[in-house]
Each structure stands twice: as C-alpha cells, then as structure tokens.
Write the structure tokens for this entry.
Amino acid sequence: MKPFLKWAGNKYRIVEQIKKTLPSGGRLIEPFVGAGAVFLNTHYEKYLLADLNADLIFLYSFLKKEGASFIQDCKLFFSSENNNEKKFYEIRDLFNTTEDSRLKSLLFVYLNKHGFNGLCRYNAAGKFNVPWGKYKKPYFPEKEMQSFYYHAKNALFGCADFEKIMHSACVGDVIYCDPPYVPLSETAHFTNYTAHVFGVEQQLKLASLAEALQNKGISVVISNHDTDFTRKIYAKAEILQFQVRRFISCDGNNRVRVPELLALF
Ligand SMILES: C[S@@+](CC[C@H](N)C(=O)[O-])C[C@H]1O[C@@H](n2cnc3c(N)ncnc32)[C@H](O)[C@@H]1O
C-alpha cells in the first residue's frame, strides 16, 4: 500500500526488507512515522504513530476522524485553476497564516503535491517555504487516502519528540525508528522536516534509548545510512546492511547506490 504523501526518506521501496526484521508483538510504535510506509504495509493489532511535525499529525488525525468527507474536501483544491504559480503562493500564504487547523490540514495535502519535489521544509520562523513544483497535473491520492483511513482504525497518533514516545513503550511492543538520516559525508546537510534540526546529539540519544529498551525486553529496529558513525553508535545491535538506489542531490538524474542499514536491538 503506497503512502498518500510524498515524503523525503519514505521507506516504501524497502518496506519488504524492513518487515522481515520486525518481530511480532501486540503494538507497533513508530516515533518517526513520516508518510507511514511501514505502518501501511504491516498488520499489527494496534499502532502508536508519532512525529514531531504537527502539520502531519493534525492531517492524520482529521483523516482518521472524518474519512470520506475530509478526502472530498481535500480534492476540491486539486483543480486546474489552483495549478499555477500565483495560486500556489496564495495557498501557501493561507497555510502559513490560517488558525483553522482543519483547513491547514487540507492545504497540507495540496502543498505536498504541488510543491517542489514534495519537500516539507520550514524557515526559522516555522513557515512552510517550499517553492512551486510546476507539475502539469498533480495527482490526487484518493485511493491512497482511503486506504490510510481504513488502516488507521487501530492507530493512535501523537505529536511529540521521539524520546517521549519511546519512554511510553511497554513489554510486548515493537518499535520501528526511521530518524532523519545521518549525513553520508561530512559536507552533506541534515534534512529539515520540522523547524528543528536532528543532529549528532539526537542520534546518540536515540541509540542509547534503543539499548535501554532492549535491556528491558522491548525490540527496537532503527533505519539509517551505513556509516562509520552509525556502526559505532549501534555497536550493541545486530546489523543488516544493504544498498538502496536513490536520488541524493538536486540533480534529478543523479541516482546512486547508497549504503543503508537496519540496526536490530
Ligand atoms: C526519514 S523520515 C521518516 C520516513 C517514514 N519512515 C516514511 O516511510 O515516510 C523522518 C521523520 O522524523 C521526523 N522527526 C524529525 N525530528 C524528530 C524528533 N525529534 N522526534 C520525532 N520525529 C522527528 C520528521 O518530521 C520526519 O517525518
């Protein structure tokens, strides 16, 4: 099942590989849910799905609550009149200024499909600042939103930092973590999905929390790039290494093989 949002670091293409590493359990916790590729393609009895991006979690909560009527209201923004530069920036301004959280969630889907590369980026003031994507006819993900809605019946959503979510885990839960990637090289930048930056300190904190939960009998699986740094911080985990074909620069033709790992605590 394909996620309905475009999302950097989306795990849809490697979800089968990830599934093989996830043990069974009563509830799957995803502290970095993003577009939810793992959630949508697994069948746990219950889910706790969280992310620090409040716009994303509001959207999922409205979709879970309203289903079809919310999807139809989202669809209204996908018109040919709304697909030009002027309209895009008007809608982006509306998104950045409205205090109506339902409207903001509807517009988030429009921005995700009409903005450049489906990026989700905010400036220091927390304003969404992705430019127009110039797509001929952006796709409205009606079926994908419906599937998300059906699957979300057994899910709770939360907007919080990963530490708080992981601390709430109990024995019998399984945790899958897909944090923003560690840069592949010293010069690469960390990705900016929220107004906050996920740096070395957070990566170390996540690894030590995974170790602490493992000692309590709770399984944690973490996805990341395979680098000297991640090998060091995941030293207590079993490591599965593989290559992923990915576009890594602004040059859309630059598809390369990137080493990734799954750390099984
Ligand atoms: C690599 S993406 C997850 C991709 C997701 N697995 C998917 O398949 O679409 C990383 C996510 O972590 C979230 N994030 C960043 N910092 C966070 C934090 N401190 N706590 C929780 N979530 C955070 C971002 O908003 C982003 O959605």
